[in-house]
Amino acid sequence: MVVEAFRGLVKQFESQLCAIGIQYIQEIYNKQSQQKSHQNSTKLSLHSITSCPAKRPMRHSTISKCIYLFLI
Question: In which domain of life is the source organism classified (predicted)?
């Protein structure tokens, strides 16, 4: 009985932690997107010089782990 209650608390904690993590990652992604759009508008001449396309930031594997936890 105590173990089941503890499992419920752990699951609730994991869900809340994942929600906070997802929100944090989204905020970072939005800041990076805003910075890139600002940089792109101010550095148009440098873009034509470089041949490498801008890479999108990689998503953290925490998102997939959190989605998995929500599906359990």
Answer: Eukaryota
